[in-house]
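Table S2 (text version). Query chain:
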Amino acid sequence: MLEFFEAELDDLQFSGDININWDKQSRAIELEFTLNVTKSQELAVEDQNGELNESDEISYEDAILFFDESKIDGFEYADNYLAVIPFSGRQGLNAPSRAWCFQLSPRPIR
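Corresponding structure-token output:
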């Protein structure tokens, strides 16, 4: 799965950053990303504290957790992630998880 992520993420082109963190002991992959955008003057954006952002540059940071459901219950950490997605050890992603990932892909997954 790590090889898949690395290959797919290398091909992405966007204004931001992506980091992959692998926890070998719990067999969990944390996909952290930062998206940077420039907003138009007419648009008002509040941060997570409800403060109005005066800058034209906006950064959004979040993470997705992929976890081996035989090792940990990743759903316990759902409040800390944009999404938590289980996989079944070496069998990989189950059908609902694969469908969710296909929706995110800007092009067909190899």
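Notes on Table S2: Helices lie at 2-11, 95-104. Residues 104-110 have pLDDT under 50 and may be disordered.
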